[in-house]
């Protein structure tokens, strides 16, 4: 029986929370075992934010070139070289990963173990032939694409958000199954590259967690670019076809099936917790496989924490990094930070993007509060008009009694940046009057936020 190597801390996973925590712990004089079974950087660096937003930028360049005549700029025929697109994406990813590996390599007191980790006890983790013992253990294993057991799914070849990163060709007809954030970003991206694209969504509308006005506006944006949408696809199935894959949609109208050259499954994500041996450590999971944590991200075992996508508290790079900040603050800074202090905020990176913070209108109504709302179409925003990008709108929600800002949606050019003007005020717990009296720079998208705040009206 091998003797365990002893560490002050074991961190399983090199995603967005693991390496910075290793940095803080080693700087505090602790010995750390950092474990990664695949690629340092996790989803964000390798198959998520970095590569996909790099490809979104390439797609935007193609779109702008095609519409150049609208700005008085002639470009001639526009073509897209997918091998160059992929090479550009790969360089951004590789450079980011190399920087992270160099940082980890320079951490005195940190040992990087390559391989799959699984628990052999509350303090013991095995990685290949190495048995590690940690006083404290931090789980940061992320998530992966969810592949539901739909009829025929095992009879076809399909793409996921991960395998899409290896595509260096242009699919003739890409069928995207799933009308939410990941699916829609790829749908618009590949439509702009030149593919025929169909989005298949089981529900009655796209991005169903958003308000109906957001869903309807997003639908219009995609349809105007020639993306076919098949909503209310209650019974989705798959079968091989001479031209690729036949996707059964059984919608309330239109053809009962769509034939595509390639299929992308974008039907949510699931945590990478099923092969960690968490039962041997006594760590509790919920019915969906997420690690159950408290407000400081401790699991049911007091010396084990869970950070990032695997704890069900957020599915974003920024929430994973904030998980690290919360854990480090409590352990090292005597700063009692909590997950419940975090305001939900995220973006949908279609073009134009959606920036979201706090409550939706639907949630605000359900809260029982008296709610004020202000809204402005992007057609009335000078900056958007000047750029020729006038699709979308901005909306702010306010508690009529407390004057607290409850939430905001900015769907339009620069929306992913402009939303922070509202988000920061929400963290400061500033009343809406603070925004009303702010003097923003002209001409920007954000300059209209104070105007919207002044023109609030009760929700109908």
UniProtKB/TrEMBL annotation:
Keywords: FAD, Flavoprotein. Belongs to the class-I pyridine nucleotide-disulfide oxidoreductase family. This is FAD-containing oxidoreductase. Residues 347-450 form the Pyridine nucleotide-disulphide oxidoreductase dimerisation domain. Its cofactor is FAD. It comes from Aminobacter carboxidus. Residues 8-321 form the FAD/NAD(P)-binding domain. The keyword Cytoplasm does not apply. NCBIfam families: PRK06370.1-4. InterPro entries: FAD/NAD-bd_sf, FAD/NAD-binding_dom, FAD/NAD-linked_Rdtase_dimer_sf, Pyr_nuc-diS_OxRdtase, Pyr_nucl-diS_OxRdtase_dimer. PANTHER family: MERCURIC REDUCTASE. The keyword Flavoprotein applies.
């Amino acid at each position: 029986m091998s003797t365990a190597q002893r560490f002050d801390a074991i961190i399983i996973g090199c995603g967005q929370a693991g390496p910075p925590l290793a940095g803080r712990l080693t700087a505090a004089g602790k010995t750390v075992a950092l474990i990664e079974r695949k690629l340092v950087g996790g989803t964000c660096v390798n198959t998520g934010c970095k590569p996909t937003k790099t490809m979104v930028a390439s797609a935007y360049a193609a779109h702008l070139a095609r519409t150049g005549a609208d700005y008085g700029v002639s470009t001639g025929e526009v073509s897209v070289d997918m091998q160059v697109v992929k090479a550009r994406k790969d360089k951004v990813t590789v450079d980011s990963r190399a920087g992270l590996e160099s940082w980890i390599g320079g951490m005195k007191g940190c040992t990087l173990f390559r391989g799959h980790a699984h628990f052999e006890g509350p303090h013991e983790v095995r990685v290949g032939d190495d048995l590690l013992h940690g006083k404290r253990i931090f789980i940061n294993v992320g998530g992966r694409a969810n592949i539901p057991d739909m009829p025929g799914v095992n009879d076809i070849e399909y793409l996921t958000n991960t395998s899409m990163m290896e595509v260096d060709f242009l699919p003739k007809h890409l069928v995207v199954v799933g009308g939410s954030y990941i699916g829609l970003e790829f749908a618009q991206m590949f439509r702009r590259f030149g593919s025929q694209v169909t989005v298949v969504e089981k529900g009655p509308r796209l991005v169903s967690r958003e308000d109906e006005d957001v869903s309807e506006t997003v639908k219009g944006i995609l349809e105007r670019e020639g993306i076919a949408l098949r909503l209310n696809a209650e019974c989705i199935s798959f079968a091989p076809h001479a031209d690729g894959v036949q996707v059964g949609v059984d919608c309330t109208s239109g053809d009962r099936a769509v034939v595509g050259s390639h299929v992308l499954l974008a039907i949510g994500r699931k945590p990478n917790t099923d092969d960690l041996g968490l039962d041997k450590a006594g760590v509790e999971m919920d019915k969906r496989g997420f690690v159950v944590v408290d407000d400081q991200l401790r699991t049911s075992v007091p010396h084990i924490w869970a950070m990032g996508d695997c704890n069900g508290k957020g599915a974003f790079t920024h929430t994973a990094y904030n998980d690290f900040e919360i854990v480090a603050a409590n352990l090292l800074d005597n700063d009692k930070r909590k997950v419940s202090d975090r305001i939900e905020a995220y973006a949908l990176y279609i073009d134009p993007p959606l920036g979201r913070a706090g409550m939706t209108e639907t949630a605000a109504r359900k809260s029982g509060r008296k709610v004020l709302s202000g809204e402005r179409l992007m057609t009335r925003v000078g900056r958007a008009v000047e750029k020729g990008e006038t699709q979308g709108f901005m909306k702010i929600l306010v508690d009529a009694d407390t004057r607290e800002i409850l939430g905001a949606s900015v769907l339009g050019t620069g929306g992913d940046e402009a939303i922070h003007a509202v988000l920061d005020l929400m963290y400061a717990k500033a009343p809406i009057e603070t925004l009303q009296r702010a003097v923003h720079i002209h001409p920007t998208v954000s300059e209209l936020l104070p105007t919207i705040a002044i023109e609030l009206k009760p929700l109908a």
